[in-house]
């Protein structure tokens, strides 16, 4: 497939992950410009395609907002839902956050309203804080996580500590954004070819389909893909991953 489409994949560690320098002031915008700076230093050229999954999709939204002129395309795979977006109907956002177990709801509320307390909240023992992955992953998700997220890999990712490597991700993704997805403009025209894709896994226990449908209804230039019988880790299923890449390269 790589040979067929003449592409290559560039994976990078966001600030604080792996060996990347930490940024105590990380935001959606700083992560976006980190991508542009990396692309320039690696001389990728004037345009590139960005792909993000789950929480890692928030910088893709940032690219569509802040550096749309640098994109040849974008793929949002089971993208996060920020429950404090201002232009999404509140009843949809309420339903979306209630899809999550209460302990996970509290993590995101603390990250949004009191980010300076997030480390304490994640490590405290006073209040119930059950983060059983079985409550947010399907059985197949759990199988895939054991394959792709082994302890040695996660230790390398979190070598700078949980707060820098993980919790700042949550704070950046679920903080106050300067825009809502429904305010985005189509970066592509008849003379500027490219496409944006959003992928929804219908067995996903974390992401409410109705919110993604609402966004795509407001932004009809986003191509919406619904995939049945697959959970949150859709990108780790070989045939689904190939479908995601082929759509990005051919549409």
Can you walk me through this structure?
This protein is an alpha/beta fold. It has eleven helices and four strands; from the N terminus they run H-H-E-H-E-H-H-H-H-H-H-E-H-E-H. It has a four-stranded parallel beta sheet with strand order 1-2-3-4, with helices on both faces. Helix 3 links the parallel strand 1 and strand 2. Helix 2 (about 30-40) packs across helix 3 and helix 5 (about 100-115) crosses helix 9. The longest helix has 14 residues, at about 30-40. It is globular and about 60 Å long. The two termini are about 15 Å apart. The mean pLDDT is about 95. It holds the Pfam family Abhydrolase_6. This is AB hydrolase-1 domain-containing protein.
